[in-house]
Amino acid sequence: MTIERAVRALAGSLVLLSLALGLLVNSYWLILTGFVGANLLQSAFTGICPAEAIFRKLGFKASNGCA
């Protein structure tokens, strides 16, 4: 799995998890959804993604182009 796919999988999983927790446990879990969305938006403009750095240190490889 490439870094780009891992970041997408992590973001999608966190959004779905926080939505489920927000509906089933407490609506404050929806703050996590907002945080994930804001992080994705800022990384689109700045190119800085904390999850990408973590996955790189874990040994994931970057893609060579369009997958």
Short description:
This protein has 67 residues and is mainly α. The chain has helices spanning 3-24, 30-46, 50-57.
Distance from N terminus to C terminus (CA atoms, Å) equals: 11 Å
Give the DSSP E fraction (strand runs of 2 or more residues): under 5%
The ordered H/E elements are HHH
Give the total of domains: 1
| Rg (C-alpha, Å) | 13 Å
Largest sheet: none
Q: How many strand segments? A: 0
Number of helices: 3
SS class: mainly alpha
Low-pLDDT segments: none
- Overall residue-averaged pLDDT value: 93
Report helical residue fraction.
over 70%
Shape: elongated
Oligomer category:
single chain
Protein architecture, described:
By secondary structure, the protein is mostly helical. It is 70% helix and 0% strand. It is built from three helices and no strands. The chain has helices at residues 3-24, 30-46, 50-57.
Name some characteristics of this structure.
67 residues, mainly alpha
List the helices and strands and how they pair.
Blueprint (H helix, E strand, L loop, with lengths): L2 H22 L5 H17 L3 H8 L10
Helix pairs in contact: 1-2, 1-3
